[in-house]
């Protein structure tokens, strides 16, 4: 141990004491900040399924692998960080004594090989990630770049540290071999052994490289400890917890059912809720649960959510990534105020930091930075002039398609957070797009968003050549309840799907019944728009009806078939929250089974090219991808897949109650999707959701009016394709009438109509 070793060692120890000290303090502060969120007991267990999910996701990189060009490089860097930590701590000994190695394993050839692979993988992975970031730099691609809005300085800092650490690992090993301190077999040192032949035989260089490796890590610790919002660095720790505490303990993503409205860690009972003590949605950042705060802290700013977002890709202000980072920055900036006891009521009056509440009131007040006090004044949702954290246009641009949640590698729950903010805006602020007012009124008074009379719910069956069975108080031998849905009952294009399904079920001899006037909206548009009160009212009403229909039947025989993707999701995933347990199937699933059982036999092939649009609420939200595609194949059509399909499919633009709102910013989402569909040169565009059919039909009509495409392209439901094949090509119903000729949806106020013409 020479003077060099003593000097470097002393510097390393002193730097370590400082860096580790502030890092531990940073971790403690981060935990305290995350705990500012509301309680959420649903994340506590079960332990083993959650641990299994955690292990699978990080070992196999299952979520990261959704972007295959990045996954292998990130996998290398991840393991380089985890196992490389052991190599890092070895540097403390190597700085003082160049020949130091871990007892026992330090002499194993397998350990030497592992270090070799770690060093190479870390360098190669770090360089690859930096190159990928450069190739996707927003200066070249603007909104096409998933890194638009990301913190590039932080990312390059982390990647630089990764590369230097990898070089340090290889450098120490190579200089040890050059100095004769180690002599591993060539197979375990296939890079460092040849390299050692070119290096000087000096043990001092081992200490120098170990010092570089050590100090680089200490600089990283110090920098991230001072920057708690550097998600690209902190996700190395927080991602493990975020994955473990994800909403679904079975490993599924936070799609399908929305998270119930919570207050104080419990599901909020709206009939007994107290506005003075309960939280209605999220009106302030502290109203998010601690899991929400953990989400904000874990965001790596990779932009995968942003790259898949239909709103962002059509010029809307919503970027799921930027929304999360804005919430994160606001939360951490406001945290000193909250940690000191600050709190405001719904009227905006200070009720936390009041003089008669704390003996050390002045001390608490003085401890809060003036910037934190200013941050506490900002509304969570508000326009730029109000200094709002989240602009209303951002909040209401979301279609709740779930692409962001599906793609996020660290399981952030964007959709739940967006809907929670909408809930507060609707229920407390009464601040929502004007078009929704008419839709809410129609749902409340008429039980459907179109405002039609319940007695007309069976009009779709008027001219069928067979009798549609209607529930008359006895279910009898009916196997299925056919839930027609509001669109299927009232919207002209969706009626064709309803009629096709009814005819196919009749042909197959399936015993079913419909509710007719007793049916009401499931409440999906109300809930996605944030009107939880209206959703609860509709849901409880429907559950009461359904439970009476299925009275006496065991759970496994309470079968419902639906044609609407939104009805399917609500009945199957959300009605259990209000006491409704049913076996719900989508019509494409049931029809596909009937074809397999030869109860439906396509006898006239459709010799046409068809592209299929995956509805978000049967696709991403419920993983139904194969059944509709198999039906298209069974009909004899040739399937032409769009570039964005299955779990990466582009939304039609109707979800999240956007069906009832005008698009005034950027390109219309349905036009973007139609342009992609037309790029496959189809004769028909097939789908499995009435909302999608409306949006795509309007998009095709718009392009036909612009002479972009000929008049032969038609939008149909998959059931219609099958019916055509089963009918031996009998005469079909006339083509769809676009919305601008036959209106669909809630009528717009005159002011909004004028705005759409500008």
From TrEMBL:
<protein>
    <recommendedName>
        <fullName>4Fe-4S ferredoxin-type domain-containing protein</fullName>
    </recommendedName>
</protein>
<dbReference type="GO" id="GO:0046872">
    <property type="term" value="F:metal ion binding"/>
</dbReference>
<dbReference type="InterPro" id="IPR004017">
    <property type="entry name" value="Cys_rich_dom"/>
</dbReference>
<dbReference type="Pfam" id="PF13187">
    <property type="entry name" value="Fer4_9"/>
</dbReference>
<keyword id="KW-0479">Metal-binding</keyword>
<feature type="domain" description="4Fe-4S ferredoxin-type">
    <location>
        <begin position="290"/>
        <end position="320"/>
    </location>
</feature>
<feature type="region of interest" description="Disordered">
    <location>
        <begin position="729"/>
        <end position="758"/>
    </location>
</feature>
<keyword id="KW-1133">Transmembrane helix</keyword>
<feature type="transmembrane region" description="Helical">
    <location>
        <begin position="112"/>
        <end position="133"/>
    </location>
</feature>
<dbReference type="InterPro" id="IPR009051">
    <property type="entry name" value="Helical_ferredxn"/>
</dbReference>
<feature type="transmembrane region" description="Helical">
    <location>
        <begin position="73"/>
        <end position="92"/>
    </location>
</feature>
<keyword id="KW-0472">Membrane</keyword>
<keyword id="KW-0408">Iron</keyword>
<dbReference type="InterPro" id="IPR017896">
    <property type="entry name" value="4Fe4S_Fe-S-bd"/>
</dbReference>
<keyword id="KW-0004">4Fe-4S</keyword>
<feature type="transmembrane region" description="Helical">
    <location>
        <begin position="205"/>
        <end position="225"/>
    </location>
</feature>
<dbReference type="GO" id="GO:0005886">
    <property type="term" value="C:plasma membrane"/>
</dbReference>
<dbReference type="InterPro" id="IPR051460">
    <property type="entry name" value="HdrC_iron-sulfur_subunit"/>
</dbReference>
<keyword id="KW-0560">Oxidoreductase</keyword>
<keyword id="KW-0812">Transmembrane</keyword>
<dbReference type="GO" id="GO:0016491">
    <property type="term" value="F:oxidoreductase activity"/>
</dbReference>
<dbReference type="Pfam" id="PF02754">
    <property type="entry name" value="CCG"/>
</dbReference>
<dbReference type="GO" id="GO:0051539">
    <property type="term" value="F:4 iron, 4 sulfur cluster binding"/>
</dbReference>
<feature type="domain" description="4Fe-4S ferredoxin-type">
    <location>
        <begin position="386"/>
        <end position="418"/>
    </location>
</feature>
<feature type="transmembrane region" description="Helical">
    <location>
        <begin position="6"/>
        <end position="28"/>
    </location>
</feature>
<keyword id="KW-0411">Iron-sulfur</keyword>
<dbReference type="InterPro" id="IPR017900">
    <property type="entry name" value="4Fe4S_Fe_S_CS"/>
</dbReference>
